[in-house]
Amino acid sequence: MSKPIPAINRYKADLRELNFLLFEQFRLGEILGRGPFEAWGEEEVRTSLAECYRFVREVTGPLNSPADAQGCRLEGGKVITPPGFKEAWKQVYAAGWKGVGISAEYGGAGAPNSLHILVEELLSGSNVAFNMYPGLAYGASELIEVFGTHEQKELYCRRMFDGTWGGTMNLTEPQAGSDVGASTTTAKRNADGSYSIRGTKIFISGGDHDLAENIIHLVLARVEGSPAGTKGLTLFIVPKFRPNPDGSLGKFNDVTCGAIEHKMGINGSSTCVLNYGENDACIGWPVGGEEKINQGMPQMFRMMNGARIAVGIQSISVASTAYLNALEYAKDRKQGASITHWKDATAPRVSIIQHADVRRMLLDMKARVEGIRALAVKLAHHLDMVRVLEDEDAEKAAYHQGQVDLLVPLVKAYGSDQAFRVCELAIQTYGGAGYTRDYPVEQYCRDAKIFSIYEGTNHIQAMDLVGRKLGQAGGANLQAFLGDIAKFVATNSAHPVFGEAVKRVGAAQEALAGSAMKLLTWFQSGHMELVPLNANRFLEMISELTVSALLLEGAILADEKQKTVAAEHPDHAFYEGKKHTALYYARTVLPGVEVKAKQMLEEDRSALDIPDLAFATV
Fold first, then answer.
1. Using alpha carbons only, what angle is made at residue 244 by residues 239 and 249, rounded to the nearest 5 degrees?
2. I need a labelling partner for 108 at 20 to 30 A (CA). Which of 123, 199, 206, 470 fits?
């Protein structure tokens, strides 16, 4: 019998880094107290982060490892979540952490997006499986808030925002994964204006659980007579229990959980097979009413965009705690003598952080974690500026929204790819110990693998980038992005410490611009097959360029700030770390942008030209 997993907190976060991004690099203080953020000041933001960190270390963090070991179970058609989850659900809502980003109209705090995503990082990093349940409820209720009828908003939003009811989104079917348009779930109109729903959905995160009294499913289905493909899909509100007009629960709505998937990670999150209408008694209502029939995909994309950002935050959160745990282990674990005494068998053993390759791994993890977090906060900053400027300056608000659209696939895809690599590197830092359940990094690695797959695989994100986002607004969003990079390079290329690294950013920007033109040429010349072959490569290029610029921007700021801090002050070392991190990334990762650009110019077709039978003779 295996030994039980102790209920201890292993989650770690660096609040100094979070506050640096908010108040020093992205200057959140300039918009606090303005417009939609009138109720927020710097002290409120800092206190919120500190209190949330305390909460997750005490409440959700200790449940992470036990929940991974115990998982969810299906009893009598109902999902039972791991011990402690029901209490944590009540506590996270009572403490207000799931209401930080919700508007005051629905009882929330209306915080800036920049703060909201960092609160979500703390919640996810401490227990990503648990936080998926309220996260899905938030996304579903936000969609109803945007697209629902007045009656739907009144009935569902507040109850979903405050945790009384949960929520999900349902796209995937056994025969329709990424090909959503192949959905066969049907909706037949009833005389009272409701619709009878029938079909099966798979891989539904939080599809059933015992945390909330009701679960509101958002289900894509095809109304009889609607067109084939995605244009004929409608989004329906399908509750587990039909609510009465006053919000009390009515009869069971014929939504059953057929199975729980047995997964590699996030075992505390129930990933369900849901059957709708097996007894012809499942009722749903179109989101937004009858006039929104066949508008399901545009509506669902609203939730999916939020979900994709959320996956990026999950990625950062797990990668960050994996790095910080590996760092702690490297400081404590003694193994081997210093390289300066490598011939002396009697030399004292040193902490492994003293070994060059371990230091390389630690700095690599630090750079990637801080880089993808800066990327996510940059996106959130643009979202905040949209909210501040939408009634003041439509042109500037449009610029910021354009940058949001461009950055979403980067945050999701690059963030999740790098998170898995950071977690793998954290295991390597531990050595054999990291491969055991005595330490948390093996779970982090298993949990992180799903991030590059769900909410649209990372290749889908890359195709969204090159097929849709680069051409949005006639290419103006990309041009504005490149212009921002060019301005940064022009301003800082003569910097006495970072000038050479900044010039490398300029070279990478030129390579990226050339590669964007190459994609356009393939589109226009009929060589479409080369676009998906290179889409992932291009997404990596633009992500690495952005991350390097952001790290250098932070390092230049840190260099100035460090001059005002005494050498013995903790901030002196913090700022020193920012400088080395940016230089490492610029010297070891950023050069890959130009290499990838040259690879695109090669137009290598090997993967296309190799015959199917030539992959293997088995």
1. 60
2. 206
Nearest Cα residue to 324 out of 15, 2, 23: 15
594/264 Cα distance (integer angstroms): 36
Under 8 Å between Cβ of 257 and 77: yes
Integer Cα distance of 460 and 301 in angstroms: 13
Q: Can you tell me which residue has the tokens 């439509």?
A: 394
Q: How far apart are CA 249 and CA 466, in angstroms?
A: 46
For residue range 69-99, what is the model confidence (pLDDT) as tens digits? 999 999 999 999 999 999 999 999 999 999 9
Task: Please report which residue ranges of 60-206 form alpha helices under DSSP H.
Answer: 64-70, 85-94, 113-126, 128-147, 150-152, 158-161
Using CA atoms, how far apart are residues 381 and 21, in angstroms rounded to an integer? 10
**Strands 165-170 and 214-223, bridge-based pairing:** parallel
Structure tokens at 513: 């611009």
Say if residues 107 and 99 touch (Cβ distance below 8 Å). Answer: yes
395, 420 Cβ separation under 8 angstroms: no
CB 436 within 8 A of CB 446: no
Residue appearing with tokens 């009935």: 155
The predicted structure's pLDDT at residue 340: 86
Q: Phi/psi at 8 (nearest 5 deg)? A: -125, 150
Determine the pLDDT at residue 4: 66
Residue type, 124: S
Residues 6+ apart with CB under 8 A from 564: none
Q: Map tokens 């660096």 to a residue.
A: 14
Closest CA to 504 of 581, 558, 583, 451: 583
Q: Specify whether the CB–CB gap between 137 and 156 falls below 8 A.
A: no
pTM equals 0.95
For the chain, domains (ranges, CATH) are: 15-71+82-150 (1.10.540.10), 165-296 (2.40.110.20), 468-607 (no CATH)
Are 519 and 529 within 8 A, CB to CB? no
Q: What is the pLDDT of residue 2?
A: 52
Q: Is 222 helix (H, G, I), strand (E, B) or coil?
A: strand
**pLDDT, averaged in runs of 10, over the chain (618 residues):** 74 98 98 94 98 98 97 96 98 96 92 98 98 96 96 97 96 87 94 97 97 98 94 97 96 97 97 97 97 94 87 98 98 92 86 96 98 98 96 95 97 98 98 96 98 94 96 96 98 98 98 97 95 98 98 98 96 98 98 98 96 94
